[in-house]
């Protein structure tokens, strides 16, 4: 495992994003209980790892994260960067009082946010598509992940006596 | 063939996990699953792609068997082992269940060589025993951490 191949704009972008994202995370008033916050941070951290090492590497190898296909420290920073986004999704889900009727438009807005972030990541050389992969394929991934996150939260609310 | 074997095993493990009388709640189970999958994916990637200690097949069907083992079978064996440990009383039973789980993980991983999914170039089952013991410890620690956090929230409400 290396730190990075070359310290250039993707590393600078990731470090800047890390500062901004976690500043927002700590500055937002706490709405969710501690155990839900930890759970959704972990979900946000794990999902990109699952996708990166399944379709982004190995046999399919649809995209490369950062400077090379080898494991870099910058890759870990990328995953840490994603962790608060699952939390933000649930945070605003609760804050905006999302219900059955508003679930679809709310999720569509997040799919658009996800796509914009992906386009920006591509521009900043964080992500490089390979083997005919195109940005619009990510729509499927975002829809599946965000729907899962929302439905899983509803399930937790039903099962957890503290909610 | 391997895809059928490992898919069935994955289904069986998920089924067993659902039906056992589990002391872990939904959120605790999810945390243990996520922590285990993160470790499992990263370790397998480092061993196969970075250090080249294990060679993995280039056949698509067998490759899916590897993905199933890494992402579903290993985490669910760990979760089942942990759930049974939490259910059991007595240190000796817990130690026995810990060892059985580590052995089961090692046997399943080694079985991938039989189906030609893996080829251990610079790797053997003793390393697997050490790695899976570590994986079990990490899962136990993550459960303890989250369980204490959850208890704290319950007491406050």
UniProtKB/TrEMBL annotation, chain A:
Domain of life of the native organism: Bacteria
Protein name: Uncharacterized protein YacL
Transmembrane intervals: 12-32, 39-64, 76-92, 104-123, 135-156
Sorted UniProt keywords: Membrane, Transmembrane, Transmembrane helix
Keyword Transmembrane helix: yes
From TrEMBL, chain B:
TM regions (residue ranges): 6-24, 31-48, 63-83, 95-117, 129-146
Keywords tagged on the record: Membrane, Transmembrane, Transmembrane helix
Protein name according to UniProt: Uncharacterized protein
Source organism: Alkalibacillus filiformis
Taxonomic placement: Bacteria, Bacillati, Bacillota, Bacilli, Bacillales
């Amino acid at each position: 495992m290396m730190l990075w191949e070359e310290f250039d704009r993707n590393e600078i972008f990731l470090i800047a994003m890390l500062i901004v994202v976690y500043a927002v995370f700590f500055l937002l008033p706490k709405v969710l209980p501690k155990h839900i916050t930890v759970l959704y941070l972990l979900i946000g951290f794990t999902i990109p790892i699952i996708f990166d090492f399944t379709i982004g590497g190995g046999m399919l190898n649809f995209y490369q994260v950062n400077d090379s296909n080898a494991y870099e420290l910058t890759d870990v920073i990328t995953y840490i960067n994603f962790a608060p986004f699952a939390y933000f999704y649930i945070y605003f889900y609760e804050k905006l009082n999302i219900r059955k009727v508003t679930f679809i438009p709310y999720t569509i807005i997040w799919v658009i946010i996800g796509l914009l972030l992906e386009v920006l990541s591509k521009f900043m050389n964080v992500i490089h598509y390979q083997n005919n992969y195109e940005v619009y394929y990510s729509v499927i991934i975002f829809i599946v992940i965000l729907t899962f996150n929302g439905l899983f939260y509803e399930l937790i609310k039903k099962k957890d006596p503290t909610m | 063939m391997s895809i059928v074997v490992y898919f069935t095993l994955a289904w069986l493990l998920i089924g067993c996990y659902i039906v056992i009388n589990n002391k872990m709640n939904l959120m605790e189970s999810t945390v243990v699953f996520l922590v285990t999958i993160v470790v499992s994916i990263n370790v397998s990637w480092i061993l196969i792609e970075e250090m080249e200690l294990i060679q993995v097949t280039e056949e698509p069907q067998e490759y899916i068997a590897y993905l199933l083992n890494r992402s579903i079978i290993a985490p669910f064996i760990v979760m089942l082992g942990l759930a049974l440990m939490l259910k059991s009383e007595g240190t000796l039973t817990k130690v026995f269940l810990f060892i059985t789980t580590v052995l089961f993980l090692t046997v399943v991983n080694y079985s991938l060589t039989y189906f030609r999914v893996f080829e251990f170039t610079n790797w053997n089952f003793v390393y697997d025993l050490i790695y899976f013991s570590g994986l079990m410890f990490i899962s136990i620690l993550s459960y303890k951490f989250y369980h204490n956090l959850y208890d704290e929230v319950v007491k406050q409400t």
